[in-house]
Design brief:
By secondary structure, the protein is an all-beta fold. Helices cover 0% and strands 61% of the residues. It is built from no helices and nine strands. A five-stranded antiparallel beta sheet has the order 2-3-9-5-6, with no helix packed on it. The protein has a four-stranded antiparallel beta sheet with strand order 1-4-8-7, with no helix packed on it. It is globular.
Length: 79
């Protein structure tokens, strides 16, 4: 479940345990997303590349992901 986003989430899907969404923002803006998950993610992918720059908060079961934004949608996948 999406809790907050600094950017426009344009697509959102959850299927077979995989979360996928796209997010856009003005050029040069760093997007930030907080997502409620059932468990800690094993990996996070942004535009098809694995990233390490995310935080898992076990107390609230939330993932916080920050990355560079742009007007064209950035794809995010949390398997």
């Amino acid at each position: 479940m999406l809790l907050a986003a600094a950017g426009r989430v344009e697509q959102w899907s959850v299927a077979q345990g995989n979360l996928e969404y796209t997010i856009s923002s003005p050029e040069g803006v760093r997007t930030s997303t907080r997502i409620l998950l059932d468990k800690a993610p094993q990996s996070v992918w942004v535009d098809g590349k694995a990233v390490e720059d995310y935080q898992w908060d076990g107390a609230s079961s939330t993932l916080v992901l920050r990355h560079a934004g742009r007007p064209d949608p950035v794809s995010v996948r949390v398997p």
